[in-house]
User: Fold these one by one.
Assistant:
Number 1:
Amino acid sequence: MQNDTYLAHKLQKALDHDNFETREGLKTLFKDSLFVPRYSIPINEERKLALQRLKKIVDKKLISIMDFERNPSRIFTAHEIVGQMDGSAATKMTVQFNLFGGTLLNLGNNALHKQKLKDIDSLKSVGCFGLTELGYGNNAAEMQTTATYNPLTKEFTLNTPNTLSRKYWITNGALHAHYCIVFAKLIINNEDEGIHAFLVPIRDKNLKIKEGVSIWDMGHKIGINGIDNASIGFNNVKISKDALLGNTSSINEKGKFESTIIKKRDRFLYVADRLLSGRLCIASMMIGASKYTLDIAINYANKRLAVGKKGKSDNAIFNFQLYQRSIMPMLAKTFCYNLALNYIKDVFANKIKATKTEKIILCCGAKAVLAWHNERVASLCRERSGGQGYLSANRMGEAIFGSHSGITAEGDNAVLMQKVSKELLGLEKNKSLTILGHYLYNKIPSFFKQSLVGIKFNKKLKNSIQLKLLKFKKDTILSTLAIDLKNVRSKGATIYEEWMYNQSDEIQLLAKSYFDYKVLSICDKYQKNAHKDIQPLIKDIKTLYFLSTMETNMSWYLTNGVLSRNEAKRITKLSKKYCKTISQKALLICKAFGIPDHMKLAPMYNDIESFNSFDNRGELIKESRNW
Amino acid sequence: MQNDTYLAHKLQKALDHDNFETREGLKTLFKDSLFVPRYSIPINEERKLALQRLKKIVDKKLISIMDFERNPSRIFTAHEIVGQMDGSAATKMTVQFNLFGGTLLNLGNNALHKQKLKDIDSLKSVGCFGLTELGYGNNAAEMQTTATYNPLTKEFTLNTPNTLSRKYWITNGALHAHYCIVFAKLIINNEDEGIHAFLVPIRDKNLKIKEGVSIWDMGHKIGINGIDNASIGFNNVKISKDALLGNTSSINEKGKFESTIIKKRDRFLYVADRLLSGRLCIASMMIGASKYTLDIAINYANKRLAVGKKGKSDNAIFNFQLYQRSIMPMLAKTFCYNLALNYIKDVFANKIKATKTEKIILCCGAKAVLAWHNERVASLCRERSGGQGYLSANRMGEAIFGSHSGITAEGDNAVLMQKVSKELLGLEKNKSLTILGHYLYNKIPSFFKQSLVGIKFNKKLKNSIQLKLLKFKKDTILSTLAIDLKNVRSKGATIYEEWMYNQSDEIQLLAKSYFDYKVLSICDKYQKNAHKDIQPLIKDIKTLYFLSTMETNMSWYLTNGVLSRNEAKRITKLSKKYCKTISQKALLICKAFGIPDHMKLAPMYNDIESFNSFDNRGELIKESRNW
């Protein structure tokens, strides 16, 4: 037991990785009864609560926009921990600090902007991010809101010409925001100069809505209802020239538009830059939720009795293979994704060198893969927890709905995966067809067998083979897709058609395969440098991650002749074995997730018997029972 | 267009299958504004609404417990349609009419019981079903509630000795039920005679709770909050001898217990019989929800514009392969599962001959497979609908949470699949090892190639090959598992250990494979006898169902040497082709789901632009906007 505590502590340090004090600060703060979850409360209560909680967090200075300059990982870490306690507060925080605050920090270039900056940390100024429009959610570059410059008054006139161009889904917009960073086409001298960002006051200090601004509450959502999402319209609202954000575009003394960025598309990408860090904020919330959900579910499964050998209820469901085969791969993946996210946070913070393209690939991939993963973790944990998982008080539902939000917010997962693949292909574009051809699938078996000479699964599952197998899949799909696309071009067909109508499976699989491989290679390196006491355990976890990835992709390996039928069977057999191995360490791994008991108020984590020994009405605190 | 309307009408008749008037009656009733969905309302409003809606349905006599005797399919049909409108009302209905009413109808054997029967249809008597106990949800046979007979007073004393034995999750219990059918161990002369069912009044006419009964509201759930679930305890409540249900067990004049059923386990199964029809009720709700969700999502995807060739928003997302590969297999499966459910309903109603075991296999399988399927349909449709899918008003959330309820209610899906496999194995148990051995996996390739002589995928994908491929998998897994279990026994190890610790994947796969095959064979027969005008379309749908099933199980076919690498590639290619083929008929198929516009109030089905042109607060009716 001493040993387990020691190992859990070591593992936790590996997972927590950075900003230990901030983590501890947040966890300590969550002892405050304000953070006890409440369920059957009206939507306006839920929203008030989310703001109050966020206020407590900022009052303790546990997050600051200045972190982006000195310690960006701290922002992501805060998202992970706050997300475990209240997804709504975390989402309000991500808009306030990353989308709103981060944009202002990066692009604020004059006195007006800088003055607003200082009130962000304290929530004295609450902001929102007006990018998405109802009609252009999947094609922001086509947005219709305009900011037309009037050289006489030196003002912009902000206008949403129709319903489809209203800003939509704007977090913090319905109730709490004083400012909105509005994205609009900058029109000057009847010329459209592309999308720019403007700092626009939408409410005064007393939260009275400014003239010309119409704000409609979007109402009830399938989850995280503590967020006040709005539809916002601007009816010829005048804003000062100073409202224009960024130092790349400006209007000179003569009223002429100037920009250091030539392409309109690039001007848009410049101002929408915070979406990238936003994706790491979401990825952090997702990993936090996965750890939280698994911790509760696995602890419950260890106590929940079902039919034993003699028909009595004396065997914990955790012991059953059905449970282990469903949940242990999720546990191993969560652990490995966490190590990978730590690495990606370091890349973002420039602690690890990477090109801009590599950063984009990693941030987009992490957001997509971790959100999808969290959806599966939450759904499977709910299912394997039976009826208890269906009670709101046990918090599986929040994880399901939260993951759905993560899947499509700040870029639809599948579209981000397209972006990842596009960038990966871009890195290959200078290679000749001959080089790419090496990987062509009709040459795979012999090529592959050469590179794996003498190494067989029935011997040892070496790290190097694991890596080779995942890398080989990624490389092959990448090359095949590259060749197919090159051929299309040479045939005079369009890449657009090939991309959208014919290669969708391959595009998605490429991005996934890249991320699968990248995660394994990050974990591999991590393990090698880890403290020797935890190396064997990390190795086992990583191996189950690998085996589970192989099982998911088994038909690819078989169809492409990489694995023989016997090797495939061996992998399945090994995977079953490792599910058992990891199950023996599952509680230890959950402990390493470092979530203190006072944050795990779910009755099924604690004691469903005592929770159900009185008229609880499904609530944890008395005040919520009085509906 | 005329042609499409004609075909849709024909297809709808195939899907609707029975009780056309009841379907129409319900659909017409749903024009009543009471059925307009409301979202941000307090939980007690939601529950009141569910009861009011159910009351309207019964007032129109659109369901009756007598249907079980004359037309059981009508009950299931009502579940399908009511579930599309309000999952909570449908769940309250299933407890009132199937679990409570159906049990009373089947087991009511004296004047007391018969008198109550007549008030069920009108809801004058509302009932609930007290089977599950907090501590014994997965092992009801171990329940602790007792009904102890006192020969002096000729009464039973009903008692829940502790928290774990409180009746739990009892629908209709928290607010509306007058009666509870309580399952308890019958104790007489200090002998436990096994679990029996008792008709117990828990509230009087004015809904005042009876003495000794404690009812606690379970509060907020992750979905279908219109249901009033309760935890119910009995503190030495006296009930008359007449309360005992069923005519198999009785207490004679001398106060001696008698039963025509010898085994205690069988006495329990006798009284818990309604779980079987209950599973068809759930399966019906699930198929209704899948059709509803797909109809809304597919229609929206046909209107939702995204980036086209030139960067403008002028191409509907429905046209993209990403969309079609995700949603078209779901559409085809839903269609085929619906035909299969129609068949199973006929089996239940004895219109098609089947043994009791076959009935159990089909009902358990249908509930599990359709609930899992609905979860995938709802989650994928939500995801592919982006932000709109996240608004409660678009109803994707209800389908997700509803499916989660379906997955573990009235038997955890995975446990039901274990039951299916157990029954399938039971049917094989008299076969010798030699016969079973024919299928042994190391003999598969030659055996299989023999049976498929000369038939190749690159020629034509005949119906008979499709059937053979699915049947072969089922037979092989069945035989392999049977042999493995026989060997375990002969080695002196226990079946329990092998079943719970080693063969879980195989057990689950067997049940799924059986159902996959059964669905295809039902659809195959249906197609052959269908009107010639719809035969080609049904064939295409069925083929996509088959191809999608093959893709899911591809690694099995490859690992077991049934398919060559080229055949596997051919299947994937064909599946892509059929996704395209079916996409061209997708709106027609949705139309055949027969859901009238007044039931599809989701803004994304209708017109998101006009819905968002005013301050809707996420609600469809004005009354709900005033929070």
Number 2:
Amino acid sequence: METRGISRAVIGRLPRYYRYLGDLIDEGIERISSNDLSKKMHVTASQIRQDLNNFGGFGQQGYGYNVRFLRTEIGRILGLDKSHNMIIIGAGNLGQALANYASFEKNGFLMKGIFDVRPELDGMMIRGVPVRMMSELETFLAENEIDIAALAIPKARAVEVSEILVNNGIHAIWNFAHTDLRLPKDVVVESVHLSDSLMKLSYNITCHKNGEKKGAGV
Amino acid sequence: METRGISRAVIGRLPRYYRYLGDLIDEGIERISSNDLSKKMHVTASQIRQDLNNFGGFGQQGYGYNVRFLRTEIGRILGLDKSHNMIIIGAGNLGQALANYASFEKNGFLMKGIFDVRPELDGMMIRGVPVRMMSELETFLAENEIDIAALAIPKARAVEVSEILVNNGIHAIWNFAHTDLRLPKDVVVESVHLSDSLMKLSYNITCHKNGEKKGAGV
């Protein structure tokens, strides 16, 4: 499937480029060739050149890439040049962990609200943001411009809550519930199924114990 | 890359089959045809038949799959028929969230230890397990049989700590640090890069705001 003529596969790789380029800046490196970047990222230089050519290719033959410029451009493509308002549904352990991830804010993801059904959590402050009750959700969404909702609730309520979110204008859901969400085409869902990734690890351990070299993980 | 003649792609899909079959059991469904399963999972029936044929195919023509049997078999293939001892490095928000995920234990992932460098956390109990200091890690690994280490620490220390783990017999790392780990071939790493997934969501929001139908997320 194509987006702006850019394949999903390429888009899926951009955050990794963005991360490595950030590390290079931290190391004070201003220019890098596709060959050196390829050694760092363990992907072929031709893949890197192909990927980055999707965006006009920021490299100059023989000069390599301007690290800061390239990172800024990729950030712009990923929409990181704008800030995104986020709410978190579920103030349990995972919801609180997400709410406390200050590093998301560095990339412009701003935690504007956190919601739960448990009265004992009502008003609890997390990094300056009070936990609100789910009964306040629709009013909150009407009064605030929210781009992203993170779902950190049990799967039993995930579908119902995701529909409430969509009906109240949310178009992007970061789903941690252990279930798949079926939502309208114009709603984007990015799921993080922690148990699934743990099971892949388990499969590989089993292979390893059976004396195999390498399994499906990584 | 092949493992036991089973492609990574198939292995990567098994946890999802396992999850759906578990839901079917909860719904009291004992048998299901590949067609009905395909409607539920939104994958083609032929893909389902191909995937499950890797394991000899548990379906009987015309009778469909025995849900409980199939789930048990897939669980066995994933190594979920055995329990796995896990430790968590980092007792911050994410580490504590992982430590509190009782649902992992249902699948046989047992949290045996949690480690941190912050003295103020020393001895704090999380679901019956005390937070230990990193200085105790090597002794702990020598005295306990640990299969999996979850890394819930900042990337600055992730490489160093992962090497300590590997040097002390850990062969499976569940990496939440925002960096890639380069470890020996016989060590399996499953990385969960939360920021990367958030960036894909951001890309899709940007596409959506630019009036596009669908982006790269899910």
Number 3:
Amino acid sequence: MSGAAVALLAATRRRPTTSLSLFLSRAARAGLHDSAAPAEEKARTRRRRRSSTSRLLGPDIPDAWDPLPRAAPRPPPPGGAGVDYGSTTIIDGKSVADDIRFQIAEEVRQMKNAVGNVPGLAVVLVGDRRDSQSYVRYKIKGCEDVGIKSLLAELPGNCTEDEVVDSVSRFNEDPSVHGILVQLPLPHHMDEERILSAISLDKDVDGFHPLNVGNLALRSRKPLFVPCAAKACLELLLQSRIELMGKHVTVIGRSKVVGLPTSLLLQRHHATVSIIHAFTTNPEEITQQSDIVISAAGVANLVRGNWLKKGAVVIDVGTNPIEDPTSDYGYRLTGDVCFEEAVRVASVITPVPGGVGPVTIAMLLANTLDSAKRAYGFATESQELV
Amino acid sequence: MSGAAVALLAATRRRPTTSLSLFLSRAARAGLHDSAAPAEEKARTRRRRRSSTSRLLGPDIPDAWDPLPRAAPRPPPPGGAGVDYGSTTIIDGKSVADDIRFQIAEEVRQMKNAVGNVPGLAVVLVGDRRDSQSYVRYKIKGCEDVGIKSLLAELPGNCTEDEVVDSVSRFNEDPSVHGILVQLPLPHHMDEERILSAISLDKDVDGFHPLNVGNLALRSRKPLFVPCAAKACLELLLQSRIELMGKHVTVIGRSKVVGLPTSLLLQRHHATVSIIHAFTTNPEEITQQSDIVISAAGVANLVRGNWLKKGAVVIDVGTNPIEDPTSDYGYRLTGDVCFEEAVRVASVITPVPGGVGPVTIAMLLANTLDSAKRAYGFATESQELV
């Protein structure tokens, strides 16, 4: 049975909200190109639906222990006992991303009508890494689809660090640019921290600035930007109605791009978080105890079926290029999770591709839009994502 | 058998380095008041000893998974099998603190001789909380003992938020002040974040500024200050020769004062960290799997013996006031850990009082000294603490 078929079957059998989601998402995709559709009404529907799921901040719980934790009853196993392949929900990340992109396109249209400007995203690409070029292509295509202006500065791999900093500085000074991202990784001879530090705090749509990271870590504060992959993981969990409060979530990987911000964001939602990494000596013992496993290790098929407990929720952030002569680009992307094994154990799982990836790009567009809203003092009725 | 007796017994029986530590610490205590003692030689001895234990930054490990983690062999259980009460090491925090304070006193003396100035710490105390008054007394006494100048601004509990901010601002402008701390908690009618934000980044000796927190979270960066209790926990572990790389450490509590910075600092040492808190539904299941448990929940006797695996290392940061009419202040402090139960299971444990507390105050002095060194461009041979 194909993944898509399983997704539809699961959606209709177990999660009516998902079938609604699929329906609305198809309408969203149509709406992106169908000017005859009543966009306002669709947007209102989305805002109503999103407002029931997306929240960045829970209440700032005092750090005292409640000896009778009535506030947090023990959650049932996400998928209950006896989960089998047929009842596993495969999250359709493309559909969730389309839904978000529709909302963004609508707000960009409102912004253009109200203030005469659209958001602008600048991308700095250094060198000719095949995977980096693909990611940048996806991001620029994403901008075009929602009406965000995109600018690309391409530099050769043998350019100097100062030339990259100069590109960033020019974008900092450009009022039509509201978000700047430097595609990582940079060539080894460059000081990544120095280059990222050159990005203005208020254009740091990747959320890597230490002040944004610190404000994400401190529950009593709020960052200007949350890294896109972390927002994508949370959005997928919230859209799938996965309870987070009190749940044991294991995050595999601790990079500033995914693992670190995801572990911090999960704690804001009152999850119990374990962070495992290359030096962890018993990763499977910890994942086997977890209600939710989020993998961003960057190793294909690292997470096997026997790493998971029955009914676990699995979010696979891995995008590992595998040689594939049959692909247009000579390679294809595979996740950190051995999907064929995990899908027989998990209650909910994201595929690769078509899971976290498209939502991550949508979150980049959302961060760029949020930045432009701040720059123009432009507010909409919409709910903040995640 | 009393805790102190067990400590000495353990020190002589199992940890020769500890008996050396006890010896040197007694010498240190003497040295603080004994000008006839060869201070330079003692300081050199301490620097040699510390240099084998204290490190803030490990190498910045790329966040890729090593399928054959030869770099991190599975660590043996800290205390081995069959740990019994008699073989449990009770860490003497006062002795470790005395050692650090001796080193600080020596460096303050060198600074005074070299630049004619000493470090200055300013404390802002609002209201008349009994426990806050005690903590401030300890901190000021600690300054006096090592030659750091202390300033105290006491404000009534019914003062305005602006009056507190004004006090902080005056200290910001005072070049003789290198560290400012606002004793928490503040009265409920005050915006804690606004007041803490008023502290200059370069005088933030408590390490609560979001930029310091972000730089602590990002392994490729380095904060100006690390919160004192987190540094104290790491110093006690490193001084006790506890391996951290790959170990499973559970941190109980997620406050910005202890839990959050400790979990971030442990990750810099490549520990596998789980953070549990008031909403965690199965805390004991996670602690029972942990090589090291660090508790900062603020609940007396929360951690029972059956929460721990045999040979676990237990660091108790809890300082919970318990009514005690026989005490001078009408109360005494007790930890989060049920000591009498835990001491029969753990291989290493800190007592309360006399464990993390004195080292935390020593770290405040160390942060103040580091700040003054930066302000005066003054360097010594000494090893940075933790």
Number 4:
Amino acid sequence: MAKTAVRGTFLDFVDDPYKHVGNEEAAARFQADGLLVVEDGVIVDFGAYDDIASTHSGVEITEIRDRIILPGFIDGHIHLPQTRVLGAYGEQLLPWLQKWVFPEEHKYSEREYAEEGTKHFFDNLLASGTTTAQTFTTGNLTCNEVFFEEASRRNMRMIAGLTGIDRHVPDYFANTPEQFYDDSRTLIEKWHGKGRNLYAITPRFGFGASNELLAACQKLKEEFPDLWINTHISENPAEVHGVLALHDDCHDYLGVYEKFGLVGPKFTGGHGVWLSNSEFRRFSEAGASVAFCPSSNLYLGSGLFRLGRALDPEHRVLVSYGTDMGGGNRFSLLNSLEDGYKVGMLNNTILDGSILPSEQDLAESERNKLSPLRAFYSITKGGAEALYIDDLVGSFDIGKEADFVALDWTAGPPATAWHQSLSYSDGPLTLETVSDLLFGVMMVGDERAVDQTWIAGELAYQKA
Amino acid sequence: MAKTAVRGTFLDFVDDPYKHVGNEEAAARFQADGLLVVEDGVIVDFGAYDDIASTHSGVEITEIRDRIILPGFIDGHIHLPQTRVLGAYGEQLLPWLQKWVFPEEHKYSEREYAEEGTKHFFDNLLASGTTTAQTFTTGNLTCNEVFFEEASRRNMRMIAGLTGIDRHVPDYFANTPEQFYDDSRTLIEKWHGKGRNLYAITPRFGFGASNELLAACQKLKEEFPDLWINTHISENPAEVHGVLALHDDCHDYLGVYEKFGLVGPKFTGGHGVWLSNSEFRRFSEAGASVAFCPSSNLYLGSGLFRLGRALDPEHRVLVSYGTDMGGGNRFSLLNSLEDGYKVGMLNNTILDGSILPSEQDLAESERNKLSPLRAFYSITKGGAEALYIDDLVGSFDIGKEADFVALDWTAGPPATAWHQSLSYSDGPLTLETVSDLLFGVMMVGDERAVDQTWIAGELAYQKA
């Protein structure tokens, strides 16, 4: 495709704001009047309009006014086949799976239903500004074929894989380790690295996995070492007890995955609400990541992830954010940031020592505060780093894929516009102003702020 | 005004669903094809269309199709002058007040700004389906005059009063007890019982009140015994410690208000997150109520209100829901229900005994589950009962004021419609179906579900 360009106000990140406490702006890159030049879906230039426009005379420029343009949002943990049953009533994790989730996911064995659901899934992602998602599917081949077909058709950078389970599951929904291995291989050979698709070996969770299923995962990782691994860990106390009963040779939940050599770069454990200090250290040493899913953790009552603990520089754990739609009741990562902010603030009521003085930890407390720069880093560059795709997406560096979102900071519930006018009404935008507006987007607004979503340099979604 | 009528699908409550565990439907009243007849803003008839329509031949009927009509929502705790600063970053309660709130509230001393803010406030309430709110204003007379003028113009059933504070407050914003008493009296005599206005004696909170200010409140209550009393209690641990340092002759926070004879029917303490068992009992015995503000409690990290404990039939505490906008980051009570559901589920991770077996309490746990019928009772009849206005609003009984809301269950974020289709696509609605759809509205939808809001039998808001 010919070179094209977009002119507007851009914000992305060149570093991790958590490494610049008290001076977060140093981690951000802001172009009040910037130009992003794209060719064949890839960024070929980016900078201030006045600096670089002359180099690209003749290139068709789309002007995006009154918007903040960020890299597309990255969701580290989401469930394709729960699209219709998000927000199901009243159960904690384990009974919820049995009552609501497995019956719905099973419908994706039928191609027609899978196609309907998958279309809704991708439409909802784009309407939420999500351009990349590490996705759980089901253990059924048809469901996965439909997923990768649609991801390919939309040309989106997606990570997914056959989601296997063979314990604590109804027979109609269970895999065997052999079928899991065979069907995973089929999908890997057909889809991994084709177009923008990336494959993740996906044992649903330790509580649902026999030793044989996990051994099949280990075999696949040895045969295809550059694959991702996507699973759950330590989401809910009963689940943790249950997995240690099932794998009684392990001391803790992470040990179950370590036993099979699965923990390292490109490994994601979703939730991690009940991880111990030892497990956090081992995550960090292995270069593995946690997908923090606050909306789900609140919705299922799983608990409060120790975000500030995970981000301790002494053993920094890579963290992405996940909607965990449908344990999470919303598709939008903006709501995940809202709930992540709330989890952090709840953690701090303990960590400020006002209840138990012995619990005071002001440094950890500080890391629980989800400032807007921390927040939007976490769902762009931070998410990309956690998922080991930061060479491909997550910022406006030359050579990266041109996935981005244009946000209208006035859009959302009726209270949004007047609130935002406290920070800005007219004139040139500054980084400080944009930071304040983005906080308003995440706490007062919602996915209505997503005005446009672009995939590989092409407009893929325009809000009506 | 001439008689008018509305035909549609109606849901309201005849009893408290918490008193019908396992059979909540017994507390609800459902009309799949109902007729509500209104004259001079008051309900004069209500029932199945086929039963009563013939009695009202010649009356102009508005048909509301494809909607669920409920009584207007009741917000037990909200701050008019925080309309613009909702969602302010990063502080727990006490520093948040100093940094963000007092400076903004002070602007309402200027009539022009107060009028602008008050218009936004009421517009946002109506767009959220809220038809009655017990409202904090400021300690300034102008602000309160503007409030009651606008409430009168809109003919809404509102409770509010001069919001006094004289401790831990910047000088520019402080009342004196004498000025608080005098200006409160002025407002009471001018506005209480005029039109639909009701007055609440409003000492902002014990942490911000000298003995003299509280004594002024006591005097007002003795002089005007039918007034409401609206304040805060036990929201945040540091605040609790602080109030007991300020009022060191009291054992607990409720004791501060009891000392001045303020606790009884029509007394509301907002939040109550850190209330002791003894305080819950005394609330119950006094017939006083708590306004549960889950969005705010999460947003400011205040903690998790023990909803199931408050609703223990042995000492049932009256509970309303409050958005607490702007400590709460949203105007819509639907988001309060969403967050209330999450608080209940988080409570239950303790109460199921999976962490500490000694904490198991399955009965309390059951009361933490916010089913849709419990939820919508709580923001209609339940809220009215807690605020002692259930003779006036909160259900479709003959003689009550005709405030109601028409909800479109398909509206909200993009995922909403397909999710709701799991429960209903066509044909007659049933109570069971409507209950499921309402859960979708509160957990997957948002204030976009509010299609129309009617005040005293007249359409006051139509979604664009």
